Amino acid sequence: MDTELKVRINYLSSFGDLLESFFSDENQSENPKLTQAIEDAEKHNSWFSKKNIINALKYWIIKLRKDTLETWVSKYNLQNVNYKVAIIMAGNFPLAGLHDLICVIITGNKGIIKPSSDDKILINFFVEFLHEEFPETNEIIEIASEKLGDFDKVIATGSNNTFNYFEYYFRDKSSLLRKNRNSIAVLSGNESENELKLLSDDIFIYFGLGCRNISKIFVPTGYDISQLKNKFNNYNYIINHNKYSNNYNYQKTVKIMNNEVFTDCDYFLMSQSKEINPPISVIYYDYYDNLSQVCDLIKEKINQIQCIVTNLQIDNSIRFGEAQDPRLDQYADNSDTINFLLTSS
User: The domain containing residue 110 runs over which residues?
Assistant: First the structure.
């Protein structure tokens, strides 16, 4: 491993070390800046509950360890590249855009970032930490205050509507563009209590706002869908969150007014649907007679699906509880960000 790569890995692992130290009981009071950033992020965006912010930060403790970073990049030929890479970040959950930024840093490129207005506080904290601890990083990470300036490549994440804008606006640039995706679970009907508890994590962490949150469940014909209410009870507290509760009540009212058939689980709603992208607080489900039906639908909607959670033998699936704990090489939209950054424009 060359010296420059070791230096870049050290930048990132130092942030991981900061987080690990912070979450040891005796050290939280020693980092008032991080404490303030967590408080400010929650005040700024009420979807960022303190619990969800802490969950996101603890995820990065594990991923930013030196050995984890070294294993990740060992699969690539990190030849010398020096692109200016614009990053337009998502903000649907805390630090949603961080993975793109660490990809840019670790490949030796320069990042010109546009944090989402919803997640600017935590992203800014990360950048400010690097600038203060390693002043030379001022030359490789820049937060764009206004319109993006000169750049060679762009990574942009947004909604399906903004994707069309991105395609037009960046038509002359080397680009990695992302739009909405959803994740699905396929139940066999023989799941253990623990597997269903892990599935509830896959569904409800971040209030279901992430592309890796399970939004559609396939169950075998005859499965009693109402049993999931009690299986997921460890998340019944989310109904006390004002924004989530407003969404739940609104969706319930719409369904009642439209005479829709649905299952009210008191803190989420379940509706049978062929679609995979429900609104917040709603989980879609559908029945299957044989697994080939589900596999055919996955093939049909593959460009809309981020991940598949199951205990069945389905290609490219992951286990229950892994949806919100992706490896560093499990890329958004299944498009390898490192390869994109290493490829000539």
Answer: 3-180
